[in-house]
Design brief:
The chain is 75% helix and 0% strand. It is mainly α and 408 residues long. Helix 13 runs parallel beside helix 17. It is globular, with a radius of gyration of 20 Å.
Length: 408
């Protein structure tokens, strides 16, 4: 059709979404490299320190569904933009914290903004690009997630901490990206007109009932898939610096090694959706990475420090494939008017894994002094994820001419 032939990728919008993703994630991932410092200065256990890392995900779980509903009413620009402002406010306030309780309280404010903005990025894509471009567009904005995480992991201890000479200064530094992202979001992003959205129009929320979405079988499978994956990834990212130090790395080197996963994530987030589009398949980009992550977790128990680099690379490739595929499937397996609420449901349930996983690993480290049991748990979680994805429908282009079930 004519409007498909003349479609232009909305690069300014996707760039703003990518920058917002960087700003959302970087302040969270400056915690793991400083875990040993926060534990000592604030007199916390490993499990308690992990709460400073997972608190924003608690807000994603609590707010993802309301955020999707509100975006359906007021528009994705306003909904995500409000969240961007809250992220900036919360991250600035973290730099003033002088106790564990105040730091946690300000982290929750930051988390409210994260819970408000993050679930609405899939909805932004659904209103700006045709369905056949969803995978590629998802990879573009999602690349901001590993960029932000990798930067925070790699430079917090070697560069930022020595300059600021304290965790408060580090938090102030990582409040700069949210401030910039919030300003640019409100300047560059506009609600879609009929022309801008290529005739992709989202219906009023009154046409969508929560009951209908809750009955959507595919969304529940996606939610569990994301929960298991986030359980693995946030446990891995949150505690890999500690694992590397247990293997003999310095704190600075531990952060750099861990960031390898996230640097590899960046091209993986962009290239894996394109590869899936070329092959016309989605499900292999879920179950194959799950098997790979299970093998990595088993191997990490005994491999020496120098062999940790290839494991980090494999985790990055696997994460890029799985996460972008899940985010694409949210759009591809639901009708357009349901995307906001559907993404809220999937992210709300899925990111509960990011709360549970790091807390379990922290508690294991407190009790045993090692992370071996945690790695066994991560392997089991990945095996479970590999099994459950076979219940999902295949939505790749090889099904052209066949109806895709969007009713669940």
């Amino acid at each position: 059709m004519q409007h498909r032939a003349s479609f232009r990728m909305p690069w300014a919008i996707l760039g703003s979404a990518c920058l917002l993703a960087i700003a959302m994630i970087a302040p969270m991932f400056c915690i793991p490299p400083m875990e040993h410092i926060l534990k000592e200065e604030l007199q916390l256990t490993h499990a308690q320190t992990s709460l400073l890392f997972t608190a924003p995900m608690i807000m994603i779980v609590a707010l993802a569904i309301p955020a999707g509903l509100i975006a359906d009413r007021i528009g994705v620009r306003k909904a995500a933009g409000i969240g961007a402002i809250l992220i900036a406010v919360g991250t600035v306030l973290r730099g003033t914290a002088n106790s564990a309780s105040t730091l946690l309280a300000f982290t929750f404010i930051y988390g409210v903004g994260l819970g408000w903005s993050f679930p609405n990025l899939p909805k932004l894509v659904s209103t700006r690009v045709p369905r056949e471009k969803v995978g590629f567009a998802t990879g573009i904005y999602s690349a901001g997630i590993p960029i932000g995480a990798a930067l925070a992991m790699a430079i917090t201890m070697p560069l930022i901490f020595p300059i600021t000479n304290g965790y408060q200064g580090v938090f102030f530094f990582w409040s700069i990206p949210p401030i910039v992202a919030a300003v640019l979001w409100w300047i560059l992003v506009r609600e879609p007109s009929g022309k801008d959205s290529q005739d992709i129009v989202v219906s009023e929320v009154s046409k969508v009932t929560l009951g209908r979405v809750l009955k959507h079988r595919n969304l529940w499978i996606l939610s569990i898939t994301l929960l298991l994956h986030v359980f693995f990834m946030y446990s891995w990212a949150g505690w890999s610096p500690a694992l590397m130090m247990l293997k003999g790395a310095t704190p600075e080197l531990a952060g750099v090694i861990t960031s390898t996963t996230l640097w590899v994530d960046i091209p993986a987030f962009i290239l894996m959706p394109r590869l899936a589009d070329r092959l016309g398949l989605r499900k292999p980009f879920l179950w194959i990475p799950s098997v790979a992550l299970a093998l990595v977790a088993f191997a990490a128990i005994n491999v020496p420090l120098q062999m940790s680099w290839p494991l980090m690379i494999l985790v990055g490739i696997s994460d890029g494939a799985k996460f972008t595929t899940v985010m694409s499937l949210i759009v591809e397996t639901t009708s357009k008017e349901e995307v906001g609420l559907a993404s809220g449901l999937v992210l709300s349930i899925g990111y509960s894994g990011g709360i549970i996983g790091p807390l379990v690993s922290g508690r294991v480290l407190d009790l045993t002094g090692t992370l071996d049991l945690s790695l066994f748990i991560l392997a089991a979680v990945s095996v479970a994820a590999a099994v459950i994805v076979f219940k999902l429908p295949e939505t790749g282009s090889k099904l052209v001419g066949k109806p895709i079930d969007t009713s669940g």
